[in-house]
Amino acid sequence: MRPHPTPGNLPAELNHFVGRRRDLSEVAALLGRARLVTLSGVGGVGKSRLAVRAAVEAASGDRFPDGAWLVKLARVRDPGLVEHSVAEALGLTDHTTRLPLAALAAHLADRELRLVLDCCERQVEATARLTEALLRRAPGLRVLATSRQPLGVAGEHVLPLDPLADGAVELFADRAAAALPGFAVDEANRSEVAEPCRRLDGLPLALELAAGRMRALPLEQILERLDDRFALLTRTRVLRGPVRETARRLRGDGGPVVRAESTGAAETLDQRA
Predict the structure, then answer these.
(1) Cys bridge to 126: 42, 82, 157, 159, which one at CB 3.0-4.6 A?
(2) Using CA atoms, how far apart are residues 19 and 32, in angstroms rounded to an integer?
(3) Residue 258 · residue 250 · CB < 8 Å
C-alpha cells in the first residue's frame, strides 16, 4: 500500500537542483529552531528555488503532517490581497462574515504546517503584519520566506544567499546539456565554460539564460556577446524584466560587482535558479 501523500501544493522540479547543499543544510538547521526564516540575496540568486527545495525536503518527514504550502506574492499589487493570496494557496474558502485574517488564524490554529511565502518584498509590510499575526495565533505554523529585505518580525532569522561559486560551472553545464544534447564539460573546454560563469558573476538566473542560448549559438559566440552581457539574455521576452533588475544591481556605477548583502531582488523566476 502506498503511503498517504503529504498535503501541500509545492511544485515538482522541472530540472536538476544543482549545488547549494551547504545552504540547504543551513536552512534545515535554521528551520529546526526558528519559526520564521527569510532567504535574501541579489535578484536571480535562487532564493525561490532553494526555498521550495528546502520545503520539499522538510515535508518528506512527519514533522508537519498538514504539509507545506507555497504562496506566490510576486504579482500581488494590493497589500489588502496578501491575506487572500495565502487563503487561496491553502485552498481555504470561508463563507462566514469573518475577516480573512480571522479565517486564516482559525484554519491554522490547530494545524502543523509550513508556509513558503515567496517574493515578500512586493508587499513587505502587509506580509510582515500577517506573518506575525499568524505565528502568534498558530503555534504549529512555521514560515520560510524569500524577500529583498527582512520582514522585521520578532524571532526572524535571515539567511543571505551568495551567487554560486564552485557550482556555477556545474549549473551551466547541466542547463547547456538540456539545450544542446551531447554537450559536456571536459578538460578541453572547462576553461571556456568557466568564462561565462565568471563574467556573469556566478548568478544562477543569468547562467541558466546564457546556457539556454546554446540551442542557437555556440559557446564562442555567447562569450563574444557577453561584452554586452545582458543584451544577449534579454532576448527571452518573458525574462526581460527580471534580467534587467539583475543587470541594474550588478552594474551599479562602478561595474558588474556582486555583493553578498542581506537584501536583494526576489522574483518568481528565481525558481529557475
Answers:
(1) 82
(2) 21
(3) yes
Residue 127: DSSP 8-state: H
* Range(s) within the chain of domains with CATH label 3.40.50.300: 21-160
User: DSSP alpha helices (H): ranges in 142-268?
Assistant: 167-179, 190-199, 204-212, 219-225, 229-233, 240-251
Identity of the amino acid at 173: A
Q: Quick: pLDDT tens for 130-162.
A: 999 999 999 999 999 999 899 999 999 999 999
Cell of residue 159, nine digits: 539567511
Give domain 21-160's CATH superfamily.
P-loop containing nucleotide triphosphate hydrolases (3.40.50.300)
Task: For residue 174, name the pLDDT band (cuts at 50, 70, 90).
Answer: very high
Could you read off the pLDDT of 120-130 as tens digits, one per residue?
998 999 999 99
Contact 197, 168 (CB under 8 A): yes
Sheet of strand 141-146: strand arrangement: 68-72, 113-118, 141-146, 36-40, 156-160
Query: Looking at the predicted structure, is the pLDDT value of residue 250 above 80?
Result: no
